[in-house]
Each structure stands twice: as C-alpha cells, then as structure tokens.
C-alpha cells in the first residue's frame, strides 16, 4: 500500500521531503508532481523500480526514460552537450521541456535507447520537485504518469493513490500541477527535432 504525503506547494515540509528521499534511496517507486504533470520516479540504479515503471506504463525498450535534474551542472554529468545545444537548453531551463541527448558513461545502460545510446533529461520549474532533488542529491529516473490506453496523465494525488496503491510505494500530493506532458526536443543528431509538443513553448526551437 502506497504512503500518501500531503506536501505544501510553496513551502514543502523538510521532514516529509527527507522521508521521501530516504525511501527513494531504499528502493521506493514514487508518484510525484512536476511543472508539467505527475511522474513516476525512482533512483537511477533501481532495477526493480525501472521494471515497475515499464510494467505500469507497458513500455518497450525503445522508450526514453528521463533523468530529472536539479540544475544544469547536474544535467551536464549525464549527457554530452556541444556549445550551441548548451546555449539553447540553458535558455529554456528550468521549464517544461525534456531534451534527448547522447548519454554519458554515468547513465546506466538499461536507461539508454538501445540503438541511439541517448537519454532524456530535464530541469523542472516546480518547488516540491526541486526540494526533493536537492535533498536526494542526484537525478530522479522518471517517466510521465500516463497509463496505457488513456489520453491524459493522472493529475490528482488522491486518484493516483487510489488507482496505483499496490504498484507504487509513495504518492506526493502538493495540489494542482500541470495536465500536459513536457515538450520533447531531440538534439541527439546535432539538429533540432520536436518529438512531442507539450507544455513547453516550441517557438524558440522552430
């Protein structure tokens, strides 16, 4: 049964955030709010968590997982970025964007696209997510909480708790968050390709 945490949206309780971070380090899979919509998250090396995300969302091995990072310095440890791409991403973060980039050796192989050796990265503009990332001290391996056969992500913490009670370990609820997934921009081949139009404005990349 998932533990339910009611978190203040502007001043998240330090003790609660610390408890959740400890549970992630201990192998927990969580559902948490972001600036686009809810996501599923676990620690990078958590094979069980990765497997559960794949099962919940019915994902194949071509799915791009996302490393949700606290800041640009952290993001730069996990992907290769040239100067032009650096400037473009820097100008758009933090925000509701996911960027597909070549993965560095710091990224576990099971998280990379099997052929392209790429991974998704993002820096969210959300108080609760940022507090959790700061406490955790490392990125969260994440995937949008979009269930198979459903057109829109789940947006209410109580509903997530009700529907995923036996497949996630914790649900963080800080009230309303976005209902639209991130905009996904692929920089992996050197050119800009808009993979998904979502919450982030695409005009800067067109």
UniProtKB/TrEMBL annotation:
- GO MF terms held by the record: double-stranded RNA binding
Q: Which residues form a coiled coil?
A: none
Q: Which Pfam family is an annotated match for this chain, by its short name?
A: Sua5_yciO_yrdC
Q: Which InterPro entries match?
A: DHBP_synth_RibB-like_a/b_dom, Sua5-like_dom, SUA5_domain
Residue ranges of every copy of the YrdC-like domain listed in the record? 14-200
Source species, domain of life: Bacteria
State the NCBIfam families in the record.
Answer: L-threonylcarbamoyladenylate synthase
Q: What is this protein called?
A: Threonylcarbamoyl-AMP synthase
Give the organism, scientific name. Answer: Streptomyces mesophilus
């Amino acid at each position: 049964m998932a533990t339910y945490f009611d978190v203040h949206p502007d001043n998240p309780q330090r003790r609660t955030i610390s408890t959740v971070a400890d549970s992630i380090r201990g192998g927990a899979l969580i559902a948490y709010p972001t600036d686009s919509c809810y996501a599923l998250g676990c620690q990078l090396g958590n094979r069980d968590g990765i497997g559960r995300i794949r099962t919940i969302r019915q994902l194949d091995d071509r799915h791009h997982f996302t490393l949700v990072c606290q800041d640009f310095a952290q993001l730069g440890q996990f992907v290769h970025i040239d100067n032009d791409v650096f400037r473009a991403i820097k100008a758009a973060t933090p925000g509701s964007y996911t960027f597909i980039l070549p993965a560095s050796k710091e990224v576990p192989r099971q998280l990379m696209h099997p052929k392209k050796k790429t991974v998704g990265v993002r820096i969210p503009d959300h108080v609760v997510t940022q507090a959790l990332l700061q406490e955790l001290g490392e990125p969260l391996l994440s995937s949008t909480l979009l269930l198979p056969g459903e057109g829109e992500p789940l947006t209410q913490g109580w509903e997530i708790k009700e529907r995923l009670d036996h497949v996630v370990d914790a649900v963080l609820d800080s009230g309303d968050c976005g209902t639209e997934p991130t905009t996904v921009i692929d920089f992996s081949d050197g050119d800009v390709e808009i993979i998904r139009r979502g919450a982030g404005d695409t005009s800067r990349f067109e």
